[in-house]
Amino acid sequence: MSFAVANKRLLKEYKELIRESPEGICAGPLDEDNLLEWECLIRGPDGTPFEGGVFPATLSFPKDYPLNPPKMKFTCEMFHPNIYKDGAVCISILHSPGDDPNQYEDASERWSPIQSVEKILISVMSMLAEPNDESGANVDASKIWREDRKEYERRVRACTRKILGL
Amino acid sequence: MAESTATDPTDWDGTNLPFISSLDAALRCEVCKEFYTAPVMTNCCHTFCSICIRRAFNNDGKCPACRTNGQEYQLRRNTIVQDLLDAFLGCRDKLFHFATKEQDSIFRDERESTPSNPQPSSQSQRPRRRAAAAAAAVKLSDDEKEDLQPVEPAPPPDDGLVACPVCSRRMKVDAINAHVNKCLDNPVPAPSAAPASNPALVTPAVRQLRSTRTATRSGPLFERLPKLTYSMLKDKQLRQKLRELGISDAGSRKLLEERHTEWITIWNANADATYPKSKKEMLDALNSWERAHTRPANNKTKLADWSDDNWAAKNSDDFSSLIEKARANAKRQKIEKVEMEPDSFRKETASAPVPRLSASWTETAIGPSSQPPISAQPNIRNAGMSFSPQPTPSIDAHIDHHPHAQPSVLPTESLMGAQPNGGRPLLRTQPSVTMSLQYHSNLPHVPSMYSPPSQEHRTHAPSQSQPQSRQLSSSAYSSASTVPVTVNINDKRKYESVE
């Protein structure tokens, strides 16, 4: 039942995203038989060193979605204070209110069943533009971001170019 | 609300009524994004489907919308939302039809329908029209007219009749006076009397709904089940409780607790429903929950790869037709075999062309769409064995086996010749021989015509003992024999020497 609920809800969100997805975001299931695994593409926000890049990521939904949030992981190399080296995204909207790994998040920012894929992706897009240096999933990136913004931008641009195959 | 599953608030975008979208969205639960099913309100005044909010509370005890702490016992049925939903769903299709028509055709329809269709089609419109007709036909006192104020005066149907102001029955002008006198003396309840209150406020459908709702809202189905403190219960007591509820008491302690929680959720949500389900439907819901719940998490999508079940399902027709053909062949050849002399049969099978034989072997194992084997019987039996919907390692073995078993199709010899005793061919040949043997040993034992030649060969014996299989594998060996001697090839040589 709960599994059927997850599938139904994901199908609905998918339909809505097909119909009108926010600018710079594209997402859908990898396989129509398994709606719990999605792939998404996020465009780098304008005016940031990520500008011009298109970043692929996967979303893995739990069986009890939407009670619990999905996990998001970039499948390309990302240099960002809130993205682990393996691509996993650390953002408050993806943490359920119960677990707070870093003890800094406001419960109101965290996952709730009324959030959606669209809202996650918009949050991630704004996270690319404005990193949260308190979380520090990637310590090197956090440090460079805080201390040497020019170097940070250079390294992010290098990543972006790499994704574009330049 | 099965019909609502395919709908969406964005359906209204781009129609003539885009503003309906917000109404449509407002009548949907924010958790499941469907129209409300048994809407209930939390103590923080948010409305959700009963089952959605109960699940959310079970999960973290917080309102999904505002994260206020909440508990199930605080939920209250939100009947006005249900009424709004019923009213909206009652006209959604018609509205949508209207909204998606072209502007021109709407006006054309209206113009066409007004004169030619004096009888109003919709039931909710009828009392209005009657009242209007009554008001227009007979000029009545002012206080009565006030009652009918919101109703626009519609022209009475042009049928030469007048309506009785009391019962609004239509009749000839000559008869009306006598009728009104009779009607006032002895008010006959007309089939549909002019409604006293504004009919637009409470439609008959809603009134009927409310009355049935209050009438049916009793009985055991609507008694909410209490939650249990599982830590206070021993396994035996918990099982007893589940049996009392009429649900399965099998499984581990954890599963028992989860099943009980889910059943309580389904049951209590149903108690909130305006259109409750039967106990059987609830049990079905519980079963489908359990099936999904106990299934191991299969979160791995094999991208561009293999989906076992999918593939098996997609090709099940091929499988069954192949099996049919193979069986038919087997039957036919059994008959032929009986007719033939045993000696000639052996001769014929022994001299059967190896490449063709092995080709059919490999084809049946790899591709279900290929032709069924048209060869001797033992081969078919092997092929039949490999029709397992689950891909087994044997398929890989066959793919590797292929080049050696089929020297005429794939240039194995030339490959071997080009790089004798080294590099790639060596690496390819050795494992594949072993693998083909493994495959053979996986086959069920078939009564052998030849006894195994040596003790150490016995492991491969069952299928080797088939004439065809022997031919097949010896061809594999002959191509493999250009490589350094392996244990298997030693076996093979012994085998040959015994022969």
TrEMBL record, chain A:
InterPro entries: Ub_conjugating_enzyme, UBC, UBQ-conjugating_AS, UBQ-conjugating_enzyme/RWD. Pfam families: UQ_con (PF00179). Keywords: ATP-binding, Nucleotide-binding, Thioester bond, Transferase, Ubl conjugation pathway. It catalyses: S-ubiquitinyl-[E1 ubiquitin-activating enzyme]-L-cysteine + [E2 ubiquitin-conjugating enzyme]-L-cysteine = [E1 ubiquitin-activating enzyme]-L-cysteine + S-ubiquitinyl-[E2 ubiquitin-conjugating enzyme]-L-cysteine. Residues 5-165 form the UBC core domain. Belongs to the ubiquitin-conjugating enzyme family. This is Ubiquitin-conjugating enzyme E2 2. The lineage of its organism: Eukaryota, Fungi, Dikarya, Ascomycota, Pezizomycotina.
UniProtKB/TrEMBL annotation, chain B:
Its main location: nucleus. InterPro entries: Rad18, Rad18_fungi, Rad18_UBZ4, SAP_dom, Znf_RING, Znf_RING/FYVE/PHD, Znf_RING_CS. One of its GO terms (biological process) is DNA damage tolerance. Residues 106-157, 399-429, 442-499 are annotated as: Disordered. The keyword Electron transport does not apply. Its EC number is 2.3.2.27. Transmembrane segments: none annotated. One of its GO terms (molecular function) is ubiquitin protein ligase activity. Residues 29-67 form the RING-type domain. Residues 463-481 have a biased composition (Low complexity). E3 RING-finger protein, member of the UBC2/RAD6 epistasis group. Associates to the E2 ubiquitin conjugating enzyme UBC2/RAD6 to form the UBC2-RAD18 ubiquitin ligase complex involved in postreplicative repair (PRR) of damaged DNA. Interacts with E2 UBC2, forming a complex with ubiquitin ligase activity. This is Postreplication repair E3 ubiquitin-protein ligase RAD18. The lineage of its organism: Eukaryota, Fungi, Dikarya, Ascomycota, Pezizomycotina.
